[in-house]
Amino acid sequence: MLKIKNLTVEITEDPGNIILRNLNLHIPEGEIHVLFGPNGSGKSTLIQTIMGFPQYHVVHGSILFKGIDIIGKSITERAKMGVGISFQRPPNIPGLKLHKLTEFLVLQRNETTAEIGRKAKELEMRDFLNRDLNVHFSGGEMKRSELLQLLLQDPDFILLDEPESGVDIQAMKLIGRMTNVLLGASPRQPSQPWSKKKAGLVITHTGHILDYIHTDRAHVMCHGHIGCTGTPSRLLEDIRNLGYPECVRCHERLDDQLQLKLAGR
Amino acid sequence: MAKTSNEQLKERARRAITKKAKYGVDVDLNAFKLPETNVHDPVANPSELSSRDEITLLRKAGFSDNDNRTSGSYLQYDFDTICSKSKDPGVEVLPIDEAWEIYGDWLNDYWWKNVSIDTDKFTSQTELHMTRGYFIRAKAGAKITYPLQSCLFISQNFGAQNVHNIVIAEEKSDIHIITGCATSAKAGLHVGVSEFYVEEHASLTFTMIHNWGEDFVVRPRSVTTVKKGGNFTNNYIIMDPVKSVQLFPSTYLEADATARYNSILYGHPGSTMDIGGRVVLQGIRSRAEVLSRAATIGGKIVARGILDGKASNIKAHLECDGLILAKKGVIHAIPELIADRPDLEMSHEASIGRIGEDQLYYLMARGMTEEEATDMIVRGFLSIDIEGLRPEIKAELEKITSIQMGL
Question: How far apart are CA A13 and CA B284, in angstroms?
């Protein structure tokens, strides 16, 4: 579903400040991938570049979504093609009711507004429908609001930027369960196979969300590209045991070996 | 017209005919002419207006030709009252000259008692060249379920409309008046003197929608007194182009009374708006809240607000927020607090900015175009939650604001 090749990205307002270097990533249909990495490794930049935020400028490389290169397409076009994102820190929009936004989301899919109430109930967000978007929301409430919006938007490819940050243990369970629904699993039997049509990329700094959702592969980001790839549980264990500094060192060793190899050629 | 003011009042008015207003650009009153009378035929029911050309203008100003869900209607074209009727025994609606005929001297207790006749040339002009106005009285104890609708319409080009309105909400009554102003003319002057009397424990919500033309000059002058435990809510909505509008209504609160002002202002290129208000908290435990949301796409908006605290245990808050949506737009927020004693609580907030890129991208990531996202953010900004409003009136207000915002 998503194929990123040799992607190099700089900050638009600071040309030459390269955040992602020659990054490659392939997420096939039906797979949920996890992105680990220390702060500042470029995780958020990657998903914001996939979504098309103009703060980041693609220097070279390609992002193929459903076989089409989406570089040059607007945020709106990408959303309409089926990319959806849960923001780590969504902005406040005073005066705009959550309900108004959810209405837009169901109407753009030609669904009825009855769906809003049902989904909001499952997420315990009914009382928030009449609230100004994100204004005075707690961390967990923001994440639930993001989930509600995404459930109603129903994208094919889902980007989740730290869905667990600022969430207490109690709410974590609910968020995990509903994230499974969003990713295409049955809410009651999350161990059932997903809908094969969906795919996703989940950023997690702590890995807590992985106790609640099924994921297929994991990647560790270092210095703006993907250092290593493996099964989520194995990589998480390594990171927990050795910490990110070791990941970075390991990555640097690999980098050196690569440089030596190239030099020896 | 029946005799209204005495010679002493007239003399004070004459002396103020050249007196400039405190705020806003000066206006040459001679550029406008008084409308002729008996030009427009009256109608028995607003429904008779359904096929008229101007009906869309009236509807946009909140005046409906279907009066099922109203408690009454007052409609005036230029000088002439077109329709004046009550549908609720608890409320009385009359053209002001008829009210003088019926009530005579009693009306003197309300005539130029809140508003000073010599405030400026506009109050003076209203006295010396009055072109009617309305009298509305909610009877003691009456809870008026549906809003009462009124519209002041100008059809004569360069016409001057100088109305004098009296509104009385008697003890423990509860009424909502929606008054729209609209025009089919290109240029004109509208001056409206409105005196509101909210008696003990009564509740009056007054919603004014202004829909003037690009060459219109508008100078309303209103003052409200709220007796013990009374409530006054004043909503003001202006979304269409206007040349110049300046208004600064004042409200005086007795003990335990409350006042709320909500203004929604949208400034077009070429429009100058100087909109504000003052609440004087004279009674103990009185409360006031003044909110203003101003957005400009090129117009100049001055948003004023004065809270004057004069009694113990009062609480008052003032908020002015501005959104500049295009170059050349100007917003000047002037919030003021005055207090001369320590045992009270007053606060203000003001902000001016533009739409945040993060807000735009957020909504675009949900599938909106940039235009749709901008529209949704601005509409949100210009919607004010009004606390304590009955649901049917809330719904009515939402309907009006969405028509105003072109939905």
Answer: 56
